[in-house]
Amino acid sequence: MTYSLNTLYRPSLLELAQAGNCQALTYWINSFLAPQGVQVQIQPAPNQYLKIMVQLRHRGMLSTDMRDRLVRTICYRLWTLNSQSIRGVRIVAQQVGDSKVLWQTVVRINSPAALKRRQSEIAILRQVQLTHNLRFRIFRSLFMSGITLAGFFSSYWLFYLQMGRILEKGKPIAAPSLTDPAVNAPETASDQTATPKPIAAMGSNPADSTGVSIPTEFRGQVVSQVDLPNAEKVIALTFEDGPSDSTAQVLEILQQYGVKATFFLSGAKVKQNPEIAKQVVAAGHGIGSRGWSHRLDSSSATDMKREVDETSQLIQATTGVEPKLFRPADGRVDHAVVSYAQQQEYAVTLWSIDSQDALVAAPIVLDNVLRNAQPGRIIRLHDSPNYNGRSATLQALPQLITALQQQGYRFVSVPQLMALKATPTRDTQLPRRKPTIAAALESVQVPYQEGQVEWLP
Fold it and tell me: How far apart (Å, rounded) are the C-alpha atoms in residues 169 and 153?
């Protein structure tokens, strides 16, 4: 018959006492105190404390000095055990045969093992507290961020709904037509004080009545807005990156409100949608060239002629109207194609209000425009679906027109806006995405020669 080491091993009395065994502790302490007439009984207590019931046989041991010596003896013996299971003791003294408590005291046993365990527990407790604090801060941040975002979107949504109610209740305000006899009729004294002066037609040519002809002072210039005399409340809507399927919907909205705008047509999209381009001109809107594509990576003479000349020729062949407005991609007036367009006497037309409708939702489009609306400014919009597959322009346009009309603004095309002031204004408050634009507006034109490309300084 064989036995393993674990089967034969029996722990010693000190090992049991060190592990906190009350019976072993009672036997061990009594071995020291019994000869002195003291009997103890050790019981477990909460939080790793021991309750020691002391039975005194002699009345001479009731003095304060004897009590202190007894407490020090018990605590010292327990300290020598160096046990992690003993944090302290609660000593209760009674006389043999009497249940009355003579005295009691509580003492903490600061043995090295107990201190080490206490420090470890304190470290764990601090870590738990830090974790709880971190969780609380994260929860608080997420909660406050959620409230902020909810308030932000709720505000814009309420604004959007309020504009919708105004649109449903109010009738569309038609902009004055240039061909309406009532517009060109002499004004009475009451009309002069109540109604702003209408825009006169720029010539007898039918093309001029649609706002295509460009004043000589603006040809070859860079324009982003026009300073109007007497701060006349006139503003211009422009659409770019068309024509597309969304252009037809934009035309319907503009016709509903009697508003004229300017469309900067892309050569590639005119080739794809020639009928929609014809509808723009047939509706009496101004047109301009957006270049052939949306990219200006190349600066070769061939590519610049394609961006400017070939695009204009295609627009004229399709619509019957020659565009004399040119808008470079992303408003990049620092590109050599702009200098070439100026050489060809195009009015390089930028914008002074960027709606950012290709990037943001309809409520923010309304805020971007209404917050920056001033007389003589040019608003940039898109008549093609934006990057996320929906057109914020179509959602915001009716409310945008209504809000500006209620503020007293009249909508005109860019050529009509230029006709009101013979001096172009160069605005430096352009999109922040192109910081070189503002500096380029003040630069000197660089002459263009065949086969040679020179950059603006």
Answer: 24
| pLDDT > 70? residue 439 | no
pLDDT level of residue 4 (50, 70, 90 thresholds): low
Name, in order, each residue with C-beta under 8 angstroms of 438's C-beta and a sequence gap of 6 or more: 428, 429, 430
State both tokens at 423: 């001096």
In the prediction, which pLDDT does 98 show? 85
Mean of pLDDT values over 136-164: 86
Closest by CA position to 66, among listed 81, 56, 78, 52: 56
C-alpha angle 183/185/187, rounded to 5°?
95
**How many Cα neighbours within 13 Å face the side chain of 386?**
19
Residues 6+ apart with CB under 8 A from 411: 175, 234, 235, 236, 237, 259, 260, 261, 401, 404, 405
6-39 per-position pLDDT tens digit: 567 788 888 888 888 899 999 999 998 888 889 9
Q: Given this structure, which CATH class describes domain 197-441?
A: alpha beta
Contact 409, 204 (CB under 8 A): no
- pTM assigned to the model: 0.53
Q: What's the confidence (pLDDT) of residue 405?
A: 93
Report whether CATH 4.10.320 matches the domain 11-110.
no
Task: Say if CB 287 and CB 263 are below 8 A apart.
Answer: yes
* SS3 state at 245: helix
Asked whether the predicted pLDDT for residue 351 surpasses 80, the reply is: yes
Question: Rounded distance, CA 331 to CA 187, Å?
Answer: 41
What is the rounded CA–CA span in Å between residue 201 and residue 213? 10
Within 13 A of 435's CA, how many CA atoms are on the CB side? 0
